[in-house]
Specification:
- This is S9 family peptidase.
- Keywords: Hydrolase.
- The chain is mostly beta strands.
- The protein has a domain of 261 residues: Rossmann fold, CATH 3.40.50.
- The chain is 14% helix and 39% strand.
- It is built from nine helices and 38 strands.
- The strands form nine sheets. The chain has an eight-stranded mixed sheet with strand order 31-32-34-33-35-36-37-38, with helices on both faces. Strands 1-2-3-4 form a four-stranded antiparallel sheet, with no helix packed on it.
- A hairpin with a 2-residue loop joins β28 and β29.
- It is globular and about 70 Å long.
- It starts with 13 loop residues before the first strand and ends with a helix.
Length: 634
């Protein structure tokens, strides 16, 4: 049987963005554009509960869309002149009408509100320029973000577009930054803050009054971090946290926000997130996993290594169903709950819960995988540094034969508040197909087991390193076919930090690939989340003298004189989450010490390269990874 290769990325369909109205479902797919591998080809796909799937639109740019009246949708795309075009599309006849073209604006349609009005998201600038000047000023924090680059003086806002008058109106002051919003039953709630100089980490909560055309403050900034908002039986409920016990990564609880006093009244403690944190490398298409239906909030949570769907009715949560994979979109079609998710056997597909509780697969993308080798994750139990039982997985190599020896690669996830599951992961399957054991686990700091297990503030490189080595020891003990002299190590983001840390603390690995990594916590301060993240995760306070010593203790660069492991660094030049100076520091330090090393810089890509970057760059990243391991492990 043939194995998966890096270039099989070109054959993989990504899916997400599920939205429904009545008995119709529409979702989005993204496929590599064979005419230009710097892009994806986007499609809107319809499923109406009776027939199969039908593609109703294909476009070169991402189509943000909303349902109007069945069978119509509005969608926005950006043309080659960087103008936003608003279209109306009949989902039955596929007739397409250009409604409006917005000059010099990047906008995305979000909701149909009131009569003949659309809610759009977009950006505005405190100071308008033509963009032609060969310089820009930096006057506030953040000054860049991972997905957008320079954002100094830039604000993300909401607008109402009147379909009759063709007028566009902003809903907030010019210096107001909107971080999230929820529209339900004619009510618009948004989280954000009006600021200059420094954007607050905890945003305020507001309701927009459509009659008075102004914001009503419900919660002040710098008090709560809000995961979601829901109107249930005309009462307002929030999943939120004050971040006081476990820092900025703290999981939310459920609160009732009292109308008159704006007091937050605790309804139920939760200790899990309200999102999918089970990571994989097929995340091109965004999606929504929280919504209100029949006076219940439906949401996805990451529990241990999988996703579970719950409801919250204003009093308690209730389990709806579990899924061994990663759910990216969730919605009701009629009385059926549908979702888009990956599984151990496949990237994203459209599924539906049947009335008997069984799950029915509605889409059949990526059928070629049935003829390819997909390694089945085999569970490995081990004891962590506290003596508690944990588990991870091993993927066996293609054409494995008992008694033969094979090289192996340890993968470390990012976050650290993320989690590995046993769903489809192209990179790992490629390595297994190339003849490697691949093993991975969720060490302390991972999401899915509550705040206490996920809290590694001030401990980076200590207990997490211990757990990683204990897991490696147990894998080698239980899988004697692994050649202990040919071990590789790979990780990105926090996993890149751990890769840099591990090679400075042990010589047991013969090759390493460090992706979008962290080398120095002082350099990490320039990250788009640096001021909050570094102080929080390092348990320090704004670079006081004692804190500098602690930051340096936890910096992999401090231990570079110990490194002998040949290491490949992969980094994007527009990665402002873990900025590229960290990669240059590690690469240069190893090069000057005659340790075999190489740095590959992906131009125009950001922190999300491995998951949703341009197809040509993603393939190059996979090929560089495999070539490095082949060179030093085979």
């Amino acid at each position: 049987m043939q194995g998966l290769t890096a270039k099989d990325l070109l054959n993989l369909t990504n899916a997400g963005g599920l939205k429904t109205q009545g008995n119709n479902s529409i979702f989005q797919t993204a496929d590599p554009n064979f005419d230009d591998l710097d892009k994806y080809q986007w499609s809107l796909v319809k499923q109406n509960g009776k027939d199969g799937l039908s593609t109703i639109l294909t476009t070169d740019t991402y189509p943000a869309f909303v349902f109007d009246q069945e069978p119509n949708v509005y969608f926005t795309t950006v043309n080659d002149k960087q103008k936003t075009q608003l279209f109306k599309l009949s989902t039955d006849t596929r007739d397409l009408t250009l409604v409006h073209e917005f000059e010099k604006r990047s906008l995305a349609v979000q909701e149909v509100i009131q009569e003949k009005q659309l809610l759009l998201s977009g950006t505005t600038f405190l100071t308008e320029t033509d963009g032609a000047l060969p310089w820009h000023e930096v006057t506030e924090v953040p000054y860049w973000t991972n997905a957008e680059g320079n954002v100094n003086g830039k604000r993300h806002q909401l607008f109402i577009f009147d379909l009759k008058s063709k007028e566009l109106h902003s809903l907030v002051p010019k210096d107001f930054e909107i971080s999230n919003f929820w529209y339900q039953d004619g009510h618009l709630f948004l989280s954000g803050a009006q600021y200059q100089n420094h954007q607050p980490f905890q945003k305020g909560l507001y309701e927009y009054d459509f009659t008075e055309k102004k914001l009503q403050e419900l919660l002040k900034p710098e008090t709560w971090s809000i995961s979601t908002v829901a109107l249930l039986n005309d009462e307002l409920y929030l999943a939120a946290t004050d971040n006081k016990k476990y820092g900025i990564e703290e999981n939310p609880n459920f609160y009732h926000l009292l109308k008159d006093t704006h007091e937050m009244q605790l309804v139920q403690e939760w200790d899990h997130n309200l999102s999918n944190i089970v990571i994989h490398d097929m995340e091109v298409v965004p999606g929504k996993t929280t919504f209100v239906h029949d006076n219940k909030l439906y949401f996805v949570a990451t529990i241990a290594t999988h996703n579970e769907i719950y409801t919250f009715d204003g009093e308690k949560t209730e389990l709806v169903g579990k899924w061994d994979g990663s759910i990216t979109s969730l919605a009701f079609q009629g009385d059926h709950l549908q979702f888009i998710a990956n599984s151990p056997q496949s990237p994203q597909q459209l599924y539906q819960f049947e009335k008997d509780g069984q799950v029915k697969q509605l889409s059949h993308f990526n059928e070629f995988l049935k003829d390819r080798y997909l390694a089945e994750p085999k569970q490995i139990d081990y004891k962590d540094h506290n003596g508690d039982w944990r588990y991870g997985w091993v993927l066996y190599p293609l054409n494995y034969q008992e008694g033969n020896k094979y090289p192996a690669i340890l993968e470390v996830h990012g976050g650290p508040r993320a989690t590995y599951g046993d769903g489809f992961f192209h990179e790992m399957q490629m390595l297994a197909s190339a003849g490697y054991f691949v093993f991975f686990t969720n060490i302390i700091g991972s999401e899915g087991w509550g705040d206490e297990y996920g809290d590694v503030r001030g401990k980076y490189g200590t207990v997490d390193y211990d757990d990683l080595m204990l897991f490696t020891d147990e894998v080698l003990k239980q899988v004697p076919e692994i050649n202990e002299e040919k071990l590789g190590l790979a990780g990105g983001s926090y996993g890149g930090f751990m890769t840099n840390w591990v090679i400075g603390h042990t010589h047991r690995f013969s090759a390493a690939v460090s992706m979008r990594s962290i080398a120095s916590w002082t350099a990490m301060y320039i990250s788009d989340i640096g001021p909050e993240f570094v102080n929080d995760q390092m348990a320090t306070d704004d670079l006081h003298s004692d804190d500098i010593d602690k930051l340096w203790f936890h910096s992999p660069l401090r231990y570079v004189n110990n490194v002998t492991t040949p290491t490949l660094f992969l980094h994007s030049d527009h990665d402002f989450r873990c900025p590229i100076p960290d990669a240059y520091q590690m690469f240069q330090a190893l090069k000057l010490r005659n340790v075999p090393t190489k740095l590959v810089v992906f131009q125009g890509s950001n922190h999300d390269l491995s998951r949703k970057g341009a197809p040509n760059r993603r393939i190059k990243r996979l090929e560089e990874t495999l070539n490095w391991f082949d060179k030093y492990l085979k």
